[in-house]
Design brief:
By secondary structure, this protein is an alpha/beta fold. 36% of the residues lie in helices and 27% in strands. The chain has a single domain, classed as TIM Barrel. The protein is built from eleven helices and 14 strands. Heterodimer of HisH and HisF. This is imidazole glycerol-phosphate synthase.
Length: 253
């Protein structure tokens, strides 16, 4: 029986692990390989890893680091950042990563979704939409770490991504990133209505209760978090954590 997935989200910056708030001011957390090893021990369902630098600096994915991550991980990994073509996507998958996350390149050229999906399989193609609220209502997709507006309506693009052969959608709220005040439930509901694809929601989780709210509303879904699984306590001390089996079962009921 399928269950919701509880997914730690890791952000890479200058070969280190960082966390942002609203995609700004990356705070150093530690070594990404060490984090992967800890999440192995905690039996995380899956891991999503995004390179904070690749698109902004217009550089290729760090294949050496990706290989190290893949060799250490005992859980499925989705990797995103700097992927612009099929060759890069295939190389990452060949290193042992299960899914590639595509964003700015496919926003400019949606046909790339079809090209990659037809060659590696839709199940390995994840579309990530970084989304901000518009000043006078509605939502818009942004790129370049939330600095570049695209004019693209996220809900229209969700439907386009599904038709183009994507296998999964990640909805990432820039407004909620790192705030730990709960998910943007309006954004999540509207996004879910646009597609039957597997969908993962990211941005805003501050407690297991926040995850439970999304699971209760959306049932079989991915709920991802960064700060929740990297910090502990009032003063946000760095401490990698993840719900145990008993806590997860409570979330699912």
């Amino acid at each position: 029986m399928l269950k919701p997935r509880i997914i730690p989200s890791l952000l890479l910056h200058e070969n280190g692990l960082v966390k942002t708030v609203n995609f700004k001011n990356p705070k150093y957390i530690g070594d990404p390989i060490n984090a992967v090893k800890i999440f192995n021990e905690k039996e995380a369902d899956e891991l999503v890893i995004f390179d904070f630098d690749a698109t902004v600096k217009n550089i290729e994915p760090d294949f050496s680091l990706i290989q190290r991550i893949a060799s250490q991980s005992r859980m499925p990994v989705c990797y995103g950042g700097g992927i612009k073509n099929y060759e890069q996507a295939q190389r990452i998958l060949n290193l042992g990563i299960e899914k590639v996350a595509l964003s700015s390149a496919v926003l400019q050229n949606p046909k790339l979704i079809t090209e990659i999906a037809e060659r590696v399989g839709s199940q390995s193609v994840v579309i990530v939409l970084d989304i901000k609220k518009k000043l006078f209502g509605g939502y818009e997709v942004y790129t370049h770490n939330g600095k570049k507006s695209t004019g693209i309506d996220p809900f229209d693009f969700i439907m386009k991504a599904e038709k183009s052969g994507a296998g999964e959608i990640v909805i990432n709220s820039i407004d909620k990133d790192g705030e730990m005040t709960g998910f943007d439930l309006v954004l999540l509901k509207k996004s879910r209505e646009m597609s039957t694809l597997p969908m993962t929601f990211l941005g805003g989780a501050g407690s297991l209760d926040d995850l439970a709210i999304v699971i209760k509303e959306q049932k079989i879904v991915g709920v991802a978090a960064g700060s929740l699984f990297l910090f502990k306590g009032k003063y946000k001390a760095v401490l990698i954590n993840y719900p145990n089996k008993e806590e997860k079962e409570i979330l699912f009921t």
